UniProtKB/TrEMBL annotation:
Residues 1-92 form the Chorismate mutase domain. Keywords: Amino-acid biosynthesis, Aromatic amino acid biosynthesis, Lyase, Phenylalanine biosynthesis, Transferase. This is Chorismate mutase. It catalyses: prephenate + H(+) = 3-phenylpyruvate + CO2 + H2O. It comes from the Bacteria. NCBIfam families: CM_P_1. SUPFAM superfamilies: ACT-like, Aldolase, Chorismate mutase II, Periplasmic binding protein-like II.
């Protein structure tokens, strides 16, 4: 008889626990609906911030007593509460609109597995409605299918966190009589997908939608494989499934429909990649008082100066919060604009009715495109004290703080020292030809650069030349930590870098904490400075005292944004060295110098420069010689 592996009985216990967790979650959902039924009688709003805050504070404390950290518990319960709120809202909406279409035929863009298809499934699943799915070839076809009564609903993407507004959809909304009846936001984690049995080394082409390709350009540069563009991600996945030696970019859920498995997750340039969709129907809906509503308006103001400001003032005077403003040209009227506004208000409320009446006086055209339940559920924030570590330790200053260590930490870097008073420049080519790496390394060496950087994503293939150059020139190298399980592959790097999207990921922080390499920890966009320091604390707590904080820049359109107040604040509150990683616009060569000088004045200890079309390797010698002059 074969003996059972010792793993098996443990795994059986985990399976049992997971099953019990699922049953508890299902029961919690039932109770949440019971709460909704009770609230219906007293017209209490779905969301009760006080209750959520009390509930989370208690759970964090109880979790801590069981050895679970506060961030972990609050993250889990944010997901659970979001589901509870959305389900309650969907229930109220259904009660209030009993004459909604009996069937649910939904028109969406693309085939099974497209991002629109997945959004459609999540939206209607919450409503417990059986779906008849009608994939369409274009946005136009979605609108006309619903207009002609061949579908009951249409689902249209309107904006994406990486690529911005989808203009074609806004233009179509101008001309249809369909009403917006709902919205949903889908988080779309792009992955590289492979057919079962295919290895990445065998792949000769990657199928992708052009927008997805743009959103993942940094990672794709490291794979260095030819791309074939497709009309949709669904088509990309279908072609990869039927073409030998190919891969596709798509979502994990979509890939599963085509028998594709994930090769690499989270490959988007921006860690948060969400798309907002609108649901349209022939007849509008009414939003019940328990549910927060959004109203979308379409309006054209007169062409006199300040007309838009006057219109917006009407909203402000009536206490109405605008959540989005978008402008589109009016066909046939050059230089005139049509404005789309989302406001957080129910069109039935008096103040909204009043505002609409006042707006008719100031506009040439105004139309309500729809009033629908808002599905933007912001998590209830707990104060940092509630989330802090064990209260018995709360009188001990945090390891990152100046109270714990008044003198700044210095980290040796070759013959220089980070945090030692000199501003150090570290650089590397973003995704240029391999020759750039060598040129960059030699330039850094010659002009006093402190380290060679392998870019935001250091993939296996790119590591060897990096390490070889480092050894040859005796120049420290920085590698991005991609996969904690393979930490040994990064062992030759002198410094490790945790990219912004890893800042909150416990397994990366634990790997960094257990390492003896200095670790550069980058602030995630939108994360608070407190959150950055908490992540640093986890690394320090793990044992690694060589943590370097990094403030990455970003681009707002063509404008470079770099938070130097954050740099100054971090230097005052923490003894850890602080770097900046500015992003430069297309013609960024001229911006590099003033940004570096300003960062140095704000107290930064150095900069990480990503060399690309905005700042080329060839511009590095002038920049460095002038900076250190
Ligand atoms: O207790 C309530 O009032 C609920 O609606 C339940 C619940 C929850 O899921 O715990 C959901 C939404 C509220 O904001 C607070 C709590």
């Amino acid at each position: 008889m074969t003996q059972e592996h010792p793993l098996e009985p443990i795994r059986r216990q985990i399976t049992e626990l997971d099953r019990a967790l699922l049953q508890l979650l299902a029961r919690r959902r039932e109770l949440s609906l019971e709460v909704a039924r009770t609230k219906a009688d007293v017209t209490k709003p779905v969301r009760d911030a006080e209750r959520e805050s009390a509930l989370l504070t208690r759970l964090v404390a109880e979790g801590r007593a069981l050895g679970l950290d506060g961030q972990y518990v609050s993250r889990l319960f944010h997901v659970i509460i979001e589901d509870s709120v959305l389900r309650q809202q969907a229930w109220f909406q259904a009660q209030h609109n009993a004459d909604a279409p009996a069937q649910t035929r939904v028109a969406f863009l693309g085939a099974r597995g497209s991002y629109s298809h997945l959004a459609c499934q999540s939206y209607f699943e919450r409503r417990d409605l059986a779906l008849q799915e009608l994939g369409q070839p274009s946005f136009d076809a979605i609108i006309s299918t619903v207009e002609q009564g061949k579908a009951d609903y249409g689902i249209l993407p309107v904006e994406n966190t990486s690529s911005g507004s989808i203009n074609e959809v806004f233009d179509l909304l101008q001309h249809t009589h369909l009403q917006i009846v709902g919205e949903t936001t889908e988080s779309i984690p792009h992955c590289v997908l492979l057919p079962a049995g295919t290895e990445m080394a065998e792949v000769t082409q990657i199928f992708a939608h052009s927008q997805v390709h743009t959103q993942c350009s940094r990672y794709l540069a490291t794979l260095n494989k030819p791309q074939t563009y497709c009309a949709s991600s669904a088509e990309a996945m279908e072609r990869a499934a039927s073409t030998p030696n190919s891969a596709a970019l798509g979502s994990e859920r979509g890939g599963a429909l085509y028998g594709l498995k994930v090769y690499q997750r989270e490959i988007a340039n921006q860690p948060i990649n969400e798309t907002r969709f609108l649901i349209v129907a022939r007849k509008g809906v009414e939003v019940p008082p328990q549910v927060p509503a959004k109203t979308t308006l379409l309006m054209a103001t007169g062409q006199k100066p300040g007309a838009l400001v006057e219109a917006l003032q009407v909203l402000r005077d009536n206490g109405i919060n605008m959540t989005k403003l978008e402008s589109r040209p009016i066909h046939g009227n050059p230089w005139e604009e049509m404005f789309y506004l989302d406001v957080a208000a129910n069109v039935q409320h008096d103040r909204m009715q009043l505002a609409l009446r006042q707006l008719t006086r100031l506009t040439r055209f105004i139309k309500v495109l729809g009033c629908y339940p808002s599905e933007t559920i912001l998590p209830t924030e707990l104060d940092s004290q509630a989330l802090a570590a064990d209260p018995r330790l709360s009188d001990q200053p945090a390891l990152h703080s100046r109270k714990h260590k008044p003198v700044g930490t210095e980290i040796p870097l070759g013959h220089q020292s980070l945090g030692g008073g000199n501003f150090l420049i570290m650089a590397g080519p973003a995704d240029g030809p391999p020759g750039d790496l060598s040129l960059c390394a030699r330039t850094l060496k010659e002009y006093g650069g402190a380290a060679l950087w392998g870019g935001w994503h250091s993939r296996d293939a790119a590591l060897d030349p990096l390490f070889e150059l480092g050894t040859e020139l005796n120049l420290p190298v920085i590698v991005s930590l991609e996969e904690p399980a393979q930490a040994q592959e990064y062992a030759h790097g002198d410094l490790w870098l945790l990219p912004p999207e890893r800042m909150n990921q416990t397994k990366w922080l634990a790997t960094a904490g257990a390492s003896q390499h200095p670790v550069i920890l980058c602030r995630q966009p939108g994360a608070s400075l407190d959150a950055l320091l908490k992540a640093a604390e986890q690394i320090l707590d793990g044992g690694n005292q060589q943590v370097i904080l990094c403030e990455p820049g970003r681009l707002e359109g063509e404008l470079p944004v770099l938070d130097l107040a954050a740099v100054a604040w971090l230097k005052q509150h923490s003894h850890l060295p602080v770097l900046v990683a500015p992003q430069l616009p297309g013609d960024g060569g001229n911006m590099a110098m003033p940004l570096l000088q300003a960062a140095r004045s704000a107290g930064a200890d150095g900069a990480l420069l990503s060399l690309d079309s905005s700042l080329g390797v060839d511009q590095l010698p002038t920049l460095m010689s002038q900076f250190y002059r």
